[in-house]
Amino acid sequence: MSRQTQAIIHADAVLQNFRTLSSMAKHSQSMAVIKADAYGHGAINVARILQHVSPRFAVAIIEEAVALREAGITVPIVVLEGAHQAKECAMAAQYDCILVMHSYEQLQWMQKCEVSKRPHIWLKVDSGMHRLGFSTDDIEEVVAQNQSLLTNETTLVTHFASADNPDNDFTATQIAAFETKVASLSLPVSLANSPASVNWPQSQAQWNRLGLGVYGGQVSTQSIISSAVQLFPAMTLRSSVIALRDIAEGEGVGYGQTWRAQKPSKIATVGIGYADGYPRHCPNGTPVMIRGQRASLVGRVSMDMITIDVTHINNVTTGDTVELWGENISISEVASCAGTIDYELMTRVSSRVPRIVRYA
Ligand SMILES: Cc1ncc(COP(=O)(O)O)c(C=O)c1O
Fold first, then answer.
1. In this structure, is residue 112 part of a structural domain?
2. Where, per the database record, does this protein carry N6-(pyridoxal phosphate)lysine (predicted)?
3. Does residue 124 carry a catalytic annotation?
4. How confident is the model at residue 348 (pLDDT cuts 50, 70, 90)?
5. Is 131 labelled as part of a ligand binding site?
6. How far is the CA of 35 from the centre of ligand 1 (A)?
């Protein structure tokens, strides 16, 4: 029998989360962000699940859009980083993609692109994150100078630095900076990502761009808010016990022997490691679920295996399923143990782990 390490993708959770978040923004249209292989869930899987409810998809780079087209996905795709090279302008039109222009260089590429081969564009505004986009002071002039590139699709887009934190007023500052400068331009706008659409409803505009929340990640630092919006984990990462041993008090486990048994202990070895995307930074005590009970990671995460302490659980046998995160163990809890965020854990599940899409 093959290794039982799998990422189960819950299609109903993906669909329901998208519906929940988009229905919170009644006056907006929402698109699913499926860049980075849909945050590790499989872009083609997620596109197939959402293609009839998400009127656009967003990806980071054109290669991601091309892969979706080759899989038969026809929904228009917004490419959030726009073109990385001049030739991607014509390519975007060919693949029915909308390029987000964030620099003068990209606009020059567009101006040089044959008119019949130009794609639709959006324009990115830097409202304070200082990563990509035209400054709020320059955007009026950018629009004025590039009228020939604008179409009925053209939307002004900005991105938030701290929208997951409802106590951080910087989001309000960004909204104000953006709105002041774009109000007179009479173009559609797009501000909210999934944390903003939950924590900052005033940022919901013509288009919302929903990523993490669609996958059931934690969209608010405030637990009252995150528990009020019911989102379901879209991925269960699971593996199985491949070996069991009893060790005596004082024995060390794994590389560097970073955990030692305080009493005679039963150790289960599980077939998943950092080469699968389970974070090497997870410390002793990181939770897993086995036989309906929580157990703790003990010893260092190896490339292909982890070890867990199952002393307190009866009848553990090889082949038993172990949940690393998903329906019972929240990915946010594991992320916090590993000193990282849900986004990183989701996107790092490696290609060695088969994604199995489950409907219901
Ligand atoms: C420009 C842009 N919009 C939207 C999103 C989606 O954000 P989230 O996953 O927080 O909903 C991202 C994700 O990083 C992004 O870079």
1. yes
2. 35
3. no
4. very high
5. yes
6. 9
Residue 247's φ and ψ, nearest 5 degrees, are -125, 155
Whether the CB of 159 sits within 6 Å of ligand 1: yes
Whole-number Å distance, alpha carbon 303 to ligand 1 midpoint, is: 30
What is the per-residue pLDDT across 135-176, written as a single tens digit (0 to 9) for each?
A: 999 999 999 999 999 999 999 999 999 999 999 999 999 999
Give the helix ranges, DSSP H, for 113-145. 139-145
Exactly one of 35, 124, 181, 266 is catalytic; name it: 35
Cβ–Cβ < 8 Å for 10, 360: no
Q: How far apart (Å, rounded) are the C-alpha atoms in residues 23 and 322?
A: 35
Residue 316 belongs to what domain range?
A: 235-358
The pLDDT of 117-145, averaged and rounded, is: 98
Q: How far is the CA of 344 from the centre of ligand 1 (A)?
A: 13
DSSP 11-36: HHHHHHHHHHHHHT-TTSEEEEE-HH
Tens of pLDDT, residue by residue over 62-119, are 999 999 999 999 999 999 999 999 999 999 999 999 999 999 999 999 999 999 999 9
Q: Is 117 a catalytic residue?
A: no
DSSP-derived secondary structure letter, 276: G
Q: Is the CB of 33 under 6 A from ligand 1?
A: yes
Residue 229 is assigned to a structural domain of this protein: no
Whether residue 166 sits in one domain with residue 255: no
Q: Which residue has the tokens 């999934």?
A: 194
Verify that 52 and 167 share a domain, yes or no. Answer: yes
* pLDDT tens figures, 185-200: 999 999 999 999 999 9
pLDDT digits (tens, 9 = 90+) for 234-287: 999 999 999 999 999 999 999 999 999 999 999 999 999 999 999 999 999 999
The C-alpha atoms of residue 119 and residue 149 are separated, in whole angstroms, by: 9
Of 54, 332, 321, 359, the closest CA to residue 216 belongs to 332
Query: In sequence order, which residues have a C-beta less than 8 Å from that of residue 169 and are 6 or more positions away?
Result: none
Domain boundary, last residue among 188, 219, 250:
219
